[in-house]
Amino acid sequence: MANIPQFTPNWGAVGNVTPFTHRDNATYLTMLHDLSEYLTATLIPAINEEFSEQRLASTTEVLSLLTDVNTLITTLNTTNTDAETAHAAVILIFDSMAPIVATAQEHADAAALSADAAAAAVSNGVGLVVTDFGAVMDGVTDSTQAFIDAHAALPSSGGKIVVPSGEVVISSEITFTKTVIVEGLAVATIVSGGSVVLCAGAGSLKFTGQASGARDLMVLGVTGNTGVGITLMGGRPWLNNVSVVGQGSHGVIIGSDTVAVNVNLGNLSHVRLKENIGDGLYITHPNTSLPDNNVININGADLGYNGGNGLTIRNAFDTTIVGAAAEGNDGYGVQLINSTSNMFLKMYLEANTLGEFVADETSTRNYVIGHRRDQRADVFVFANTQNFILGFSPDAIVFPYANAIYGGTVGVVNPTISGNWAMEQDDGRDLVLWLEGTGALANITAKSRGDSGIIGWLLGKFSVGGGATVTGIFKNAATLSVGTIPANSTKDLTISAVGADVNATVQLGISSTLASGITFCGFVTSAGTVTARFANSTPSSVVVGNIATRVLATNFVL
Prior knowledge:
- By secondary structure, the chain is of the alpha/beta class.
- It has four helices and 38 strands.
- A hairpin with a 4-residue loop joins strand 28 (412-413) and strand 29.
- Helix 1 packs antiparallel against helix 2 (55-78), helix 1 (25-50) runs parallel beside helix 3 (83-123) and helix 2 runs antiparallel to helix 3.
- It is rod-shaped, with a radius of gyration of 41 Å.
């Protein structure tokens, strides 16, 4: 329990106990200076340090008394006040100070008891309830100070602050510097009540402590609000079952545009960030070359109908988004700015005014996998081909060189060498595949046909280990009327293979079993035409009939 320091000068008896002998003015001036020093250097700091609830009132009383002391000092310095009057004034001030000190001690004792209760609430996991610190859940009364006082009452290690059901108003940004959980009893919905923090003016919640966040809570901006709903600026931040709606700025910010904080290993689960003036979710870092805002996992996010983007990722990397929806935003559904190695799984994007998904030229090695069935065709716009897209129709993706399903480097570990296979789309609208790394003796380069960038289409070039380069593979199928082949004779028939060169290698496949002594082969007799030759090596004619035939012609250069 805290003790307020007492005033114990070496004056002899003073006050109403035993009036001391009259002294000269100089002595009284010394006494007054002692009083002034005690009030200024000892009593006021002690009050401010030991308790908070009555801090303002008690400090005001002390300052008023200090004014009286200083006024008397001035009077004694400038007038010829008689000793008896000075004596009476000193006694009056000394006696007036006694109840103030006693009241300060009472407040300090009460604060100590409150601190003990707070410590007990934190240790047993119950947490501190904001209504115990003066918050009123009426949707009208400004309860900003209650949150501040509850945070101050937590130990340095942090703890839980509980918001009961109802609506509590805050009017300025509240910064939680400790490891804090702000917990509601239930997030409010259209059909049921819950714990709602109404943000008036610049009202917002800001978490700078490690592993801090909120759960089961709605943060609702009221008309005229100018603040961010929730700002997460500590390592390992999190939100769970939280709604942020109607804020005058962004719904949630992770990181900062200007302060280089390390915001890593975050987790947002089941969040609803809608109808905010700015972005629904804004992930950012000020360092463009080496940002330290990464590994943020977001699972189940409703990012719709915001005045900005549904989601912006700026100077950040290794964010994973699973099952998010961005619909009806005035900006983009998703915008990447100088952001790398982010992954998007099963995004739902619809009716965003500026576009559904856009990434600038410095955003590379991002991965988009999965889509909704009837995704719009102009959804994904990338200014750099070093990104990986899988699971979309080719006309749903725009790269600067070609419409490609694969637009980035893809590494697959090869267990037999200390290297990997890599694939990317190059500036020439071709798909490049190669083997790299120590032990990667073979250099395999495959390029797609120039009129597409889609891996499922035919390869345009294929070279193996510095040998022949494959420049085209062409196929066709037809039923050939071979009929009867005379003894020791051949019969030639043709089948089209558009694109095949005269020197191409040819493979034929047939659907029937031929009689003994009948063989066949194929070769290109003129550009685009393959001759299938059937030979009868027996001394008798053989009826072959109609044969279903497939042809595969491969162009190559040595």
